[in-house]
Amino acid sequence: xxxxxxxxxxxxxxxxVDATELAAQYGTPLYVMDEGLIRQRCQEFMQAFRLSxxxxxxxxxxxAFCVMAMCRIAQEEGLSLDxxxxxxxxxxxQAGFPVERIHFHGNNKTPQEIDMAIDAGxxxxxxxxxxxxxxxxxxxxxxxxxxNILLRITPGVEAHTHEYISTxxxxxxxxxxxxxxxxxxxxxxxxxxxxLSLLGVHSHIGSQIFEVEGxxxxxxxxxxxxAEVRNKLKVVFKVINLGGGFGIRYMEGDTPLPVSQYVKAxxxxxxxxxxxxxxxxxxxxxxxxxxxxxxxxTTLYTxxxxxxxxxxxxxxxxxxxxxxNPRPALYDAxxxxxxxxxATEPNAEIVSIAGKCCESGDMLIWDVNLxxxxxxxxLAVSCTGxxxxxxxxxxxxxxxxxxxxxxxxxxxxxxxxESFQDxxxxxxxxxxxxxxxx
Length: 438
Ligand code: LLP
Hints:
Layout: E1 5-6, E2 12-14, E3 17-18, H1 19-26, E4 30-34, H2 35-52, E5 56-61, H3 68-76, E6 80-83, H4 86-94, E7 102-104, H5 111-120, E8 124-127, H6 130-143, E9 147-154, E10 157-160, E11 163-166, E12 176-177, H7 182-192, E13 196-202, H8 213-233, E14 239-241, H9 259-276, E15 283-286, H10 290-293, E16 297-309, E17 313-318, H11 327-331, E18 337-339, E19 349-354, E20 363-370, E21 378-382, E22 402-407, E23 410-415, H12 420-424, H13 431-434
Parallel strand pairs: 4-22, 5-6, 5-15, 6-7, 7-8, 8-9, 9-12, 9-13, 13-14, 14-15, 17-19
Antiparallel strand pairs: 1-2, 2-3, 4-16, 10-11, 16-17, 16-21, 18-21, 19-20, 22-23
Helix pairs in contact: 2-9, 5-6, 8-9
EC number: 4.1.1.20
Function: Specifically catalyzes the decarboxylation of meso-diaminopimelate (meso-DAP) to L-lysine.
Keywords: Amino-acid biosynthesis, Decarboxylase, Lyase, Lysine biosynthesis, Pyridoxal phosphate
């Protein structure tokens, strides 16, 4: 991947830095992010949109990996930012991200989150339901402000990675349904609320999608809806947001398309649909998360114990697990791995990689082909940049790993490894328990 290579010592090298040196200097488990590759992915989106000639924003879906250094990179590369909580918003603001380029999502934004967003000067709030619509208008009114909004609609296109289900009505907690008329009513209501400025609509069909059909189907449906709304309500959408979900290659057999092809499919579908209706071409927004940071990440682990069950399986345990990568346990996600310290040695055995948490489900990889694994080896699991650090936990009171960015032979810590003090930082022993003796 990207700028990963194998150096003359037979070690994995990421961004010009030897993985064994990273492990020695920063310890393991360690999240290593290839900054050059992150920037390359950002540029691929920006470049593909520029080629389309349409006005656009590429909003990095920060939920995939939201840390201040990443916000800086997104900003430098000219991206906007999608946040879904006060914590992500706070991170972006602390990083100095231009707030007018932040979009706020979520199906249950609290009044406090809305306050915070409006006070900060949020660029756009993606309104999810009727309750929020009214609440947002009221809060904006109290503040004497007008807030830009998109309405999240459920287009009735659902992507299950490879397959799409096109339904009249979708059973989802998100958004206004297109099929049952609630999206139409939402536009009507929103356009009558005086403290809201309705820019357009938003649709997100799923995640880790490989084919373009789903995006095309969603674009077609949104365009039909735009036409209906213009005819019946005289409301014209200036912005169409088509969400994220662009797939990446976790495994050898995965076949995502280059970023440029997803963007071209979307922008072509927009041009085709809107031009056909003589509709002023809207600005197109997308929200990639995984496809910006996913393949840039590698997690380094130190191999510890192993357990060989003859004729059944060999379990090889590493010093991390579901606390730093819950995706295999949660989604049956699969990963590839290699020995970073013996990268040129031929594979010799099929083993399963276990984490160190006290539960059987804490497996990182079932069946991976590796050289004969020994205690002390450095295992590198690839494609861990998205939804790994972001979803990490302190289960078993395990400290969260550090995150380093590597680029041009240089490594920089962007998240420090948690300390034991961090682990107990929010623990409080009530007075009445302080005197307890056994
Ligand atoms: N926009 C919206 C409204 C979303 O809900 C999401 C992801 C994205 C954009 C970014 O999607 P992406 O480009 O990253 O596929 N934790 C799961 C993924 C959950 C995705 C949730 N929404 C995982 O680890 O696979």
